[in-house]
Amino acid sequence: MELTLAISSSPIIGLNHYLVLAAFIFVCGLLSMMLKRNAIGILMGVELILNAANINLVAFNRFSYAYSPDHKPMLDGQVFAIFVIVLAAAEAAVALAIFLNYYNNFNTIDVERAQTLKG
Amino acid sequence: MNSIASILALSVDAQTVPAVLFYLFAGISAASALGVVLSRNIVRTAVCLLFTLVGVAGLYFLLESEFLAAVQLVVYVGGTLILIVFGVMLTSKSPFSRFEPKAGEVVVAIAACIILFAALVMAIRSADFRPQTLDTTQKYPVVALGQALLGDYLVPFELASVVLLVVMIGAAYLAKSRKRDDKRAVARGAATLSQKARQWS
Amino acid sequence: MSILNALTPHPVLAAAADWQKTFFEIVSGRPPLVWEQVTASVALIAMVFVPSVLLLAMFSIWWERKVCAHMQSRPGPNRVGPIGLLQSLADGIKLILKEDLTPAAADRVLFRLAPYLSFAPVFAAFLALPFGPNLTFEPKLNAGVFWILAVLSVEVMGVILAGWSSNNKWAIYGAMREACQMVSYEIPLGLSIIIGVMAAGTLNLVELGHLQGGGIHTWIVFKNPFVFCAFFVYFIASLASNKRAPFDLPESESELVAGFHTEYSGMRFAFFFFAEYAAMFIVGSIQTALFLGGWNDPFGIIGHYYSQWIGDPAAHRNSLIVLNLIAIAIFITKALGIVFVQMWIRWTLPRPRIDQVLYVCVKVLIPAACVLLLGAALWELLVPSWHQAGLIDNPLPWFHYNPRSWSDWARGGATTSLVVQVILALIGVSIVSAIALWVGYAFITRRTVKQRLTDPDPIPEPA
Q: Which of B54, B99, B106, B174 to mutate to test the interface with A (most CBs of A within 10 A)?
């Protein structure tokens, strides 16, 4: 309901639309991190959250900080988003290597089974 | 013919096209993000994530950052997602594996997330971000992005490349270690076999 | 910009500001309204792009069968229509009428989704191709080359899903091979494109076309020796990322039945087929647009007349339309020429093992591409060029300078690169003409199929 309110209040697509969408994707990512027990499912939740953050960065860049006072294009948000994408790829590679090792040791990808250190 | 043209001219103005496209891409990415949460089958979850990523690439396009949209498609869809699908294929024993969370966990998680979402939306609505007046005719030149990456952001750029190198080596080592043990075991086995063969001969 | 002060203006320089005009503006003489643009885009996609993509794919399928048949001394399809031209249409009708099977153990939703996932990106890539000076669907795409590459990299998801959801071990082997191959060959592919883009100085496909309008020596493949080598790296990597032989391990029929599309039948199978042939055309088009001069002829005639006419589009409306049509024909001919080389290689070379394919990528192509990238960067740094003389970054031939005049190049300080470009162009032309002469000689001295079948004499041994 909040979503429709936010949209109907302004006819032109502006910053708020992007922010609400990013919030929704963020919440979806958080939810799938909480609910999935498959380690790769959790990784996908992380990717959703990173994407939500990226939408925010690019939208703020476009709508609030597009030009410096002397009318030069400012690209800080986009540059940050590129770094986030690159680091997300690196993070996925390491996480998957860890998951493969985990699978080799426990013979499952269910994160709840890793309890050999449990007292 | 003229009446159709005039109706179209009235209904399709400069604001409509980006608005329609925004709702299209936002709908795709929001619906498939929900699909990531709801889907139980891990490969279908990956497909939902694919559509979210493509939808977000479309949104970047609307935000006048084509280069970022292309990066999103190349790196996220063509790289990260394929890595993830690889992981899924290598780690699932039954073809379509499922893991169920407990009912209590589901209720708590959903409640917490709804509250969080409501809080975020209220915060967004009450905040005053002061948008700049936009010059829609001017596009971001890709050249400026390249100059920013190799100028102001040179140190993070180089650091990112070092991180990538470290990750490449680390991931290769982590994923390979088990296999090396196997090789050693095989080598040990071969050594004992040849010893025995020598004894017998 | 500052070139105006540094160079005495070329007679046509006044038009330099609006070298980028849409076809609509040329026909109607004014920029389109928003609704006209929307309607025109929708109509173009539905009525021009969809049929022409299908037509091109069908033509390429027929052509491939003809090429392979002639290489194996048989006539190939020759029953349906003149010289078998309608064979693909007949095959298409047959495929539509076939039963659309889904294996019982398959994941139904994903199984049905996969062919569309692999076809849609190829189609999206078509929308960015520059067919002529005013014939680009989205001319203001600043990251055009990179965008096509990005869209094509989505295609692999369809293949992986097809293999996975079929629940068939051959299919999954094919899908895994495809994923390995695509992900690793994207690196040399991207690097070689970057080398070309570095020499050109722009990612915009329309600007790339105009940059190469001054005749064969201004084509980017001849800009410097490193780009010349990168051209071949790109070609090899594009073969692999398109899963064409000799890199067709994902569907190698001697090992994996049909690879990832083993379980597909009917129209869904046809979608994979269309996607493959359309992707062949697209990688050929990228090569044409980035390296081989795009829509321009080797003598710079199109660029010359375009620069003269675009200054007053109202007076030269019909000439510009004709020029665009000639440009589209040249572009498609060049791209189909590259597709022909892809087919030629497919029916000539044997298939290596998958580890050899990955060896070629990781230990040969990636290091080679990195060395070329370094060399191209040093070339840009050390060899004097227009922008080092304080002139504008990308001087367009005919608009900003006369590509045939030595004095213009000398004024821009780019004589060294001009000499290198001319030498490389001569080398390229001589390679192509040597191959053409060889093929022509073989064609003239050939024996017809009938002669080969009925001639009792063995082929004489060379002395």
A: B99
